[in-house]
Specification:
This protein folds into 3 domains: about 170 residues, Beta-Lactamase (2-Layer Sandwich); about 90 residues, Orthogonal Bundle (Helix Hairpins), CATH 1.10.287; about 150 residues, 2-Layer Sandwich (Heat Shock Protein 90), CATH 3.30.565.10. With about 475 residues, it is an alpha+beta fold. The protein is elongated. The protein is about 55% helix and about 15% strand. Helix 6 packs antiparallel against helix 7 and helix 9 runs antiparallel to helix 10.
Length: about 475
């Protein structure tokens, strides 16, 4: 029903447009035809003023010779009743005339068109003042009048007088009323039929598109417009298909994200529950058996509670940090700094922890490393997370290395350990924000937010974190930071 309304609205608009075009066409045709007839008439009778001057002497000592000239003027008007004859002085003032059935209303004629006509002749279409119709232009013939080889005035003959106008107007109106109406109606009917057919074809394709949109709206995400690139509305059809593909992909991604979100909640809940359960258990023990415990046991319980609370605090801090990164609430404040100095500071901070775990810590950096351009605090956080990860999974007697290397227009930062390694099939998931660290690799289960934070921070720096690992040989993470060229 809506398509039918659209069809008739478009059809009505098309019909109205065709009618307006037809009216404009008729108006332009009438105007062009009138000018054409005037141009032909001027070319045919443009020499009549010259003949008048040659056959008689219109002026004698600057005064009209009415006896001789009026007879010739009347003879011309008998042959061509539409002409109106005027004699002008050298300034354009009308000094004599022979005009039938009307009163001359102008005393002077503009000589500029007259001089142009004399210069170019009747081959060029020129109009001048009509003394009987002030403000109107008309076709004319003109010739100079000389006495004793001196310019004495002009013969000025209007070729399309009142009688000509009346006759041609009647003929033109009759012609266009008959032929113009027939041509217009025939063209209008043919154009209308073709236009209605085209509109019907377009709206038919539109109906199919609307049907696909309705199906997609009702939940059929597989609905697509067949042969979209070859119909009359190919741009609209292909755009809809592309949009539907994008929406379907987004829906699938949202479903995947929802599943991963649930997995994250389960993982985080497990990680939160473990230290909370430990803390609750030891607090209850202290509360119930406080008098029965020795001071050493009390201190041991308090240390366990403190360790669990610190672990809980770290996890909560990671969650807040990652949520801010994902919401783009953290923007890097980039500045040039010495990456070698930052690596040395991190190395010193982790020396004590490494010694306690029996792990050898090694720093390898060449001299004269260039400055890098990045956010100092965020880069430090990346290196710390990678160091935490390496020390966490490296057994006693193992080795953790920080290696810096200049690489073209950047500096490579590599953190390597001699831990159990990560199976190749699990390496793609370790940076996933919603995945546990793989348990099959010998690493303990966890929310995996440390590496997810690393990836997010490096993305803010347009950098990529890479990993290389082999089972029982160790794991290496590395990334590049742009060298500062200032």
């Amino acid at each position: 029903m809506k398509i039918n309304k659209l069809y008739w609205k478009i059809s009505a608009t098309f019909l109205l447009t065709m009618v307006l075009v037809g009216i404009v066409y008729i108006f332009v045709s009438v105007h062009t035809a009138r000018n054409y007839f005037k141009e032909v008439h001027q070319e045919l009778y443009g020499d009549i003023a010259q003949h008048l001057v040659q056959e008689t002497k219109p002026l004698a000592n600057g005064i009209p010779d009415t006896t001789a000239t009026h007879d010739i003027m009347h003879s011309m008007m008998v042959i061509n009743p539409s002409v109106e004859v005027y004699l002008l002085d050298t300034t354009g003032k009308i000094i004599d005339y022979v005009v039938p059935n009307s009163t001359v209303k102008m005393e002077r004629v503009d000589l500029a068109p007259v001089k142009s006509f004399i210069a170019y002749g009747p081959k060029q279409f020129i109009v001048g003042d009509d003394p009987k119709s002030p403000g109107e232009q008309n076709i004319f013939s003109a010739a100079p009048i000389f006495e004793h080889e001196q310019l004495a005035g002009y013969a000025y003959i209007i070729l399309a007088g009142a009688q000509y106008k009346e006759t041609t107007s009647t003929l033109l109106n009759s012609y266009f009323l008959k032929s113009g109406t027939t041509v217009f109606l025939t063209a209008l009917a043919g154009s209308l039929l073709v236009g209605l057919l085209i509109i019907w074809l377009i709206t038919r394709n539109l109906q199919h598109i609307i049907e696909m949109v309705r199906r997609f709206k009702e939940g059929d995400t597989k609905a697509r417009i067949a042969d979209a690139g070859n119909n009359d509305l190919s741009v609209l059809s292909t755009t809809f298909n592309d949009m539907a593909d994008t929406i379907e992909a987004n829906i699938e991604e949202l479903k995947s994200v929802e599943n991963l979100r649930r997995e994250l909640i389960a993982n985080v809940s497990h990680d939160l529950r473990t230290p909370l359960a430990i803390m609750q258990g030891y607090v209850e023990t202290l509360s119930i058996k406080n008098e029965q415990l020795s001071s050493g046991e009390r201190q041991q319980y308090i240390d366990i509670i403190l360790g669990s609370s610190e672990k809980l605090a770290r996890l909560i801090s990671q969650l807040f940090e990652y949520s801010k990164l994902e919401a783009k609430q953290i923007q890097p404040q980039k500045e040039p700094f010495f990456i070698a100095e930052l690596a040395q500071d991190v190395f010193q901070k982790y020396q004590i922890l490494a010694r306690k775990k029996g792990i050898e810590l090694h720093l390898d950096q060449p001299q004269n490393l260039p400055l890098v351009f990045a956010d100092l605090g965020l880069v430090e956080r990346v290196i710390q997370n990678l160091m935490d990860n390496a020390l966490k999974f490296t057994p006693a007697g193992g080795k953790v290395s920080i290696v810096l290397r200049e690489s073209g227009q950047s500096v490579e930062v590599r953190i390597a350990d001699t831990g159990p390694g990560i199976p190749e099939g699990e390496q793609s998931a370790i940076f996933d924000r919603y995945r546990k660290a793989p348990s099959t690799s010998g690493r303990s289960a966890g929310a995996g937010l440390g590496l997810a934070i690393v990836k997010k921070i490096l993305e803010l720096h347009d950098a990529t974190i890479r990993v290389q690992s082999r089972l029982n040989e160790g794991t290496a993470f590395w990334f590049h930071l742009p060298a500062y060229g200032g």
